[in-house]
Amino acid sequence: MIKNISNLGDAALYCDFGTEVNKEINKNVINYFNNLRDSNFLGITNITPSYNKLVISFDLKLTSFATLKKQVENLELKKNNNSKNNLIKIPVCCAEEFALDIKRLQKLLKINEAKIYETFFSKNYYCYMTGFIAGMPFLGDMDKSLFAKRLETPRVKVPKNSIGITEQFCNIYTFESPGGWNIIGKTPVDIFDNKKNTEPNLINPGDTISFYPISKLEYEKKYE
Amino acid sequence: MNKNYFEVLRPGINSTFQDKGRNNFYHIGIPFSGAMDNRNFLLANTISNNEINNPVLEFAYQGPKLKYVGENISINITGDVNFKIIRKNKNLEFSCYENIILENNDCLDILSTNRSVYGYLSIGGTFEVDYYLNSCSTNTKAKIGANSGEKLEKGQIIHLKNIKKILPKNKIEYLNSKIENIRIIKGPHFDYFSKDAIDLFFSDEFNVTKLSDRMGIRLKGPKISNIKNTNIKSEGLVKGVIQITADGNPIIMLSDHGTIGGYPKIGVVISADYDKLVQIPPGSKIKFKEINLKDAETIFKLYEMETQNLISNIK
Q: Which of B142, B238, B300 sits opposite A175 (nearest CB)?
């Protein structure tokens, strides 16, 4: 449940569900998100679920922090109609030119390249949220041995379709964008399809992802 | 069938079609976008007698050079903009915030936004543009909205429709005021920073760097040291949020910002200062001032009244 609601500036609510990151808290966040989407509270312009927070932005011409806070606190939650749990398989090419931070990671983690990849590919990952840039999935949890901090200064341009890791999470840069995650490879699959007017996202919160390695040759074939 | 169009002779630095933006897609990573300076967007459409959410052409720094082909059309430009119209080899000077009649083969040359960043071109009619998820706003990162999600390009044709037969003559006297003091409300991670760092944050000046665009403004100034953690678990952002990156520099989120972020949020720019914030060009210095929520709400009401006043004074 929501532990605390505070203001994020003058036109957003910051709902805190706790500090830990786990599926249970995250499913709670997503449940609130779904219920709020159906609520029709006046003035809501966006609702952003994340691991353990929910940010609700609103039109300050139509409502205010105090009004919306009361409405959210009194929201009656309908039963959680948990969405389908898809398993999605994503190919990754780890050629040197795509694995921009593998050398940094070897030093940082004191593990060799082969072991980093073996560990990375051995697990399935849960999708906690999508966003930052269109369609980008935030996946977890990584094996503890691969926990690494973000880059000190984020890159101004991370190439589209790069796979990044930081701490217990990994993600896929669905577009070229600034970003600070450690890049370990690249997928030929478009995760966000801007030609689709409905559901442009391939991966949604609650889905399960498994990555598998492909060679440079296979990568190029998939791109054709 | 009317054939009215602009040919893009020079695209300008960052020229995109915008309306008020798209709501309710943050959860899949799609930000509002929309015209950066909402007041100048509203004024542009009002002067053109258009519906308030009609697409406009937004430009930054150096704007486009456009050749017009078609029947007479009214246009107007808002912002702090230096432009001219070339008609039969003569340079004609005009002011912002008034309707101007463009004739066949006129060339509109938008030279500069002077000491600001964004300006707007509105026409008495409609730019023929694509919509995606209820808005034409171009988002060049997600490649969505008008112009296939891209900036204007040299040589392209912009088709126009619904050209107004009765050309409006509206105008308004308006001077864009500038600000250096940005008012903010404390963010949820205010306590990630030492008292010394907070004092520095509010007493020192920050430089607006060149790494600033529709996504955000990167600032450089005194290092704002963190005493807890330079990262947080990524969570939702809104425009105006000030994040402090691991190297101790602030980034202010603007209309095309990433929907979630992983740096501590020291504060959020108040809504009433947003239009002026986005107009501060690289090379400028800014300072932050803390105010409380109640004052921010009052100041917004006043700002909104002022905007509505301006709109009702257009004739």
A: B142
